[in-house]
Hints:
By secondary structure, the protein is α/β, with parallel strands linked by helices. It is built from eleven helices and 14 strands. The chain has a domain at 290-349. It has helices at residues 2-25, 76-85, 104-107, 123-130, 137-143, 146-159, 163-182, 250-261, 280-301, 306-312, 332-343; strands at 29-31, 34-40, 43-48, 58-62, 67-70, 94-98, 118-122, 193-195, 198-203, 206-212, 222-226, 231-235, 267-270, 276-277. Strand 12, helix 8 and strand 13 form a beta-alpha-beta unit. The longest helix has 24 residues, at 2-25. The protein binds zinc ion. The site of zinc ion has 5 residues, from loops.
Amino acid sequence: MRIRVAALFVALFAGWLWLDARAQTGGPIVSGAHRFQKVTDGVYYATSSGTMNVGANSPIILTDTEAFIIDSEITPAAARALVADMKAITSLPVRYVIDSHYHYDHAHGNQIFGPEVQVIGHENTRKRMLTNVLEQYTFLNSVEPIPARIESLKQRIAQEKDPQQKATLERQVASNAAYLEQVKETKVTPPNMTIDRRMTLYRGGREIQLFYFGRGHTDTDVVVYLPKERIVCSGDLMESLISYMGDAYVEDWIPTLERLKALDFDTVMPGHGVVFTGKTKITAFQAYLRDVYQQALAFKKQGLSAEDAAQKIDVTAHRTEFPNIRPVGIDAAGVRRIYQLADRPEPAQ
Length: 349
Ligand SMILES: [Zn+2]
């Protein structure tokens, strides 16, 4: 018995040393479907390890007493996996979930959390999630093209000779098929606590500030700020990549980012992409937005459809900061949105 207890302690100690070593070397801790990148003590950036359909990245903040998750991921299954995988970084219970905005890839895991968990989001997130977001283009566009995508992947698999390529394609088929299955259990669950402009939580040795700086990526974008750690979690208001613009208020987005930049921070943990430092990328994204907006309105004036304008808009000048910019054209959803708001402006409340 004593030997077994001793062995258990040795195993626990070895496990602790392993976790500690991983954290100190800066390499991510891989657990199940997630990778956890340590940003500072008790603050992690969770990304999908690629074994599940990829949703948003989730910043995790640990206090002395509980864990905060920013964004509950793309499906209930992905949220359950996140909570299970977090055992590799903490044994603390999840008590707060913050929805950075209402988009499905950030908030459709909300339903797995019980009444002991405060799910916080903007008032507009609650309003939007109470209307049927499962019928919105942004969500449907993630689901409807999948059967055709699976078919074309299967055709490629049939022709593929390289076993490694074949295995990669087969993994893609599996994760797409799994997503189609997983969305079936989604019950859109809005935040149970809402904010309008700002809120500060003092929990277990941390000060956690929440801000709504105005319309941008959506009209629901909540930013989470740790003043002591000089970290901001920006959701899709500011990604390290080019954000989706299909529900955006592009004209408002630029001054909203100016208010974000007024916070005193070094590190940005975005909704997609990678953790980055400084404000240069934010300024570059403002310039990108201005450019897209002006070109779209100019093409509209010339009578081009949104789809045709999207083909012609040239934003390659912004490629140094955003290498995922296409050689020609941008996503038509963003241009349709600019046209829509130009024809029917939505007054800010
Ligand atoms: Zn989004």
